[in-house]
Amino acid sequence: MEHVQDRELDGGRTRTGLGLPAARLGGAAGDRLVDPGPTPEEPGRSRPRGTGRLQKKLAATLAEEEARNPGLPVALFCTDEHRIGLKPVTRRVWAPCGHRPIALGHHRYEWLYVTAFVAPATGESHWYVGNGVSKPLFEGLLALFAREAGAGERRTVVLLLDGAGWHTEPGLRVPEGLRLIYLPPYTPELQPAEHLWRLVDEPIVNEHFDDITDIQERIEQRCKDLEADPDTLRANTLFHWWPQRSMPS
After folding, report:
1. CA 145, 150, 154: angle at the middle one, nearest 5?
2. Other C-beta atoms within 10 Å of 159: how many?
3. What phi, psi does 75 have (nearest 5°)?
4. Strands 124-130 and 22-25, bridge-based pairing
5. Which pLDDT belongs to residue 27?
6. How far apart, in Å, are the Cα atoms of 69 and each of 56, 62, 81, 152?
7. What is residue 106's predicted lDDT score, i.e. its pLDDT?
8. Mean pLDDT in each 10-residue stretch from start to end of the chain (249 residues)?
9. Helix runs in the chain, H state only
10. 129 with 223: CB under 8 angstroms?
11. Which domains are delineated in the chain?
């Protein structure tokens, strides 16, 4: 694992599993991002299937953790992964009438995986980039995230995630101070972190890259800028049904 910030982790280089490196991102100040729009879930809209059940489950879990450790703050985060590679990311763009915009493309299948941990109520986030996904790698990321987020020391962290095979608890070592809560099956619309990837992709849309390292540099900087702009992250991930207990007092 390579640490991207000025400060180093565990002497500079650390392994998190079966030869799968990851890079710690964030902390560097960047240009402020333009807020792309309102909160994804606005009051008055119909709620996705399973919202009520998940909302009650999250509220009950937060209450349990508050009762278990009185006086210790409880933070609610969510996490997800996003695959980016040499296969181009294309989107519609404005063009003069009668002109067809052209985006170069060359399909190759080499990938990076961005993992984000975000607290929708505050916009706090932690970002990591690796070249694969696996349970050993995810264990390493959980340990790193728990340490950097102060889980167990200064607060309890409840983490919402999907049921991907490398996320599931049988055989997964979960750090102290971190509690995992799983989404109902086949409900990505309930995952706030899903709304991060449109923002992450912005600097590589309709672009052609010769090498995966060129994409990595662009994405690392984007993640640093996003971490430095919690207001934008909050605007894109704070659903109107998100538990009130997770809101800062």
Report:
1. 160
2. 23
3. -115, 140
4. antiparallel
5. 43
6. 20, 11, 30, 10
7. 80
8. 39 36 47 46 62 92 94 96 92 89 84 97 96 94 97 95 91 95 94 97 92 95 98 96 74
9. 51-68, 135-149, 197-201, 212-227, 230-237
10. yes
11. 2-36+49-92+102-242 (3.30.420.10)
The two tokens of residue 166 are 């490398």
**What pLDDT, on the 0 to 100 scale, is given for residue 170?**
84
Rounded Cα gap, residues 206 and 187, in angstroms: 29
Six-digit token pair at 89?
Answer: 């990311």
Structure tokens at 68: 């278990």
Q: Which amino acid is at 176?
A: E
Amino acid at 61: T
β-strands 2-3, 22-25 pairing: parallel
Distance CA 16, CA 20 (A): 7
Is residue 85 within 8 A of residue 197, CB to CB? The reply is no
Q: Which long-range contacts (CB under 8 A, 24 or more apart) does 84-88 make?
A: 84/111, 84/112, 84/113, 84/114, 84/200, 84/201, 84/204, 84/215, 84/219, 85/109, 85/110, 85/111, 85/112, 85/212, 85/215, 86/110, 86/209, 86/212, 86/215, 88/206, 88/207, 88/208
Q: 220 with 200: CB under 8 angstroms?
A: no
**Residue 102 pLDDT:** 85
